[in-house]
């Protein structure tokens, strides 16, 4: 048994949080001891594993502001993570003596973690280069971002091992960080299938006021503009003009998304989407849900007919895997991570990011119920073959064993050097 520490900025509800929790579950299943350190953890807005005591969670640096007058969010996030890293380096690592420190999202913490003495290794999981996630801006925005982008590349290179979530992200990583010569390892995320297997779905009426006679399309994504959730609404409106009246009467869209009340964009975008539904005159065809809990999410996946996944250039995308596990066809944009998880016309449909393309794919499923079952079965088979939790666990355990071997070799060299002295 070894000890593994996870350092993550905000243990809320999102794909990055799900990934690190699943990685922690994978390590724990191998008998290792795991603990989380974070800048923010709200028990009312988090996954069950950090709320029910599966893992100990220590919050460090939450008193540092997230922004300054609504600006400088990236700089504040960097400062918060550096503070947490210094805390770990001075007060935690010397006492806990971890073998592995697993961090993600913000690489600036890595050099500060390595200030601590001890034979530990730092693994950085790069979901996507942060420098590419920021929106375009003017001259002053470029001046502000320049040192942050430079620091991101410099500090990412300090990790002992870098992992990425897909071949797509590996290509983006190498293009973004051309001074880093080491090629990152691809570690496809998975899902906690044990939870899915042991959770009994609720009747749909207990989750949303929608009848089982409806053909339910499901969208699960945080209420963020980059997730392109408007596409699902516009595709639904376009679908109205394709279907017969009787088929249209059967259709319903559930939009379930992570919603943090202290996140201004979540609040703004939720209002934008509800306004758009009213503008498109499809209000009665859409149910909006804020931050469904894990059981509600399982229930939605169980009862829906298909998943509509709208982000373009998504780094990987956990939700399509969850839908495939539940034998649901996935309709997604033909870019980024979904091109590696979804096989077009086999497990779902890869579409252009426009309402017409999505609506055509949706209509195919409504007109051919047998196709829903066929694509769903193929999706589950693909999940079991390539993205199972067992495969994810073995890959992470292999990485851990290689890092432990390096530690052993370093110790042997240091021992020989001491003998010579």
UniProtKB/TrEMBL annotation:
Membrane topology: Single-pass membrane protein
Domain annotation Glycosyltransferase subfamily 4-like N-terminal: ranges: 13-178
UniProt GO molecular function: GDP-Man:Man(1)GlcNAc(2)-PP-Dol alpha-1,3-mannosyltransferase activity; GDP-Man:Man(2)GlcNAc(2)-PP-Dol alpha-1,6-mannosyltransferase activity
Keyword Transmembrane helix on entry: yes
Ranges where the Glycosyl transferase family domain occurs: 211-382
Coiled-coil parts of chain: none
UniProt catalytic activity: an alpha-D-Man-(1->3)-beta-D-Man-(1->4)-beta-D-GlcNAc-(1->4)-alpha-D-GlcNAc-diphospho-di-trans,poly-cis-dolichol + GDP-alpha-D-mannose = an alpha-D-Man-(1->3)-[alpha-D-Man-(1->6)]-beta-D-Man-(1->4)-beta-D-GlcNAc-(1->4)-alpha-D-GlcNAc-diphospho-di-trans,poly-cis-dolichol + GDP + H(+); a beta-D-Man-(1->4)-beta-D-GlcNAc-(1->4)-alpha-D-GlcNAc-diphospho-di-trans,poly-cis-dolichol + GDP-alpha-D-mannose = an alpha-D-Man-(1->3)-beta-D-Man-(1->4)-beta-D-GlcNAc-(1->4)-alpha-D-GlcNAc-diphospho-di-trans,poly-cis-dolichol + GDP + H(+)
A Gene Ontology cellular-component term: endoplasmic reticulum membrane
Pathway assigned in UniProt: Protein modification; protein glycosylation
Domain of life, per lineage: Eukaryota
InterPro entries associated with the record: ALG2, Glyco_trans_1, Glyco_trans_4-like_N
Location in or out of the cell: Endoplasmic reticulum membrane
UniProt keyword terms in alphabetical order: Endoplasmic reticulum, Glycosyltransferase, Membrane, Transferase, Transmembrane, Transmembrane helix
Annotated signal sequence range: none
Protein EC: 2.4.1.132, 2.4.1.257
Pfam families: Glyco_transf_4, Glycos_transf_1
Main subcellular location: endoplasmic reticulum
Stated family: Belongs to the glycosyltransferase group 1 family.
Function recorded in the entry: Mannosylates Man(2)GlcNAc(2)-dolichol diphosphate and Man(1)GlcNAc(2)-dolichol diphosphate to form Man(3)GlcNAc(2)-dolichol diphosphate.
Protein name: Alpha-1,3/1,6-mannosyltransferase ALG2
Biological source species: Parnassius apollo
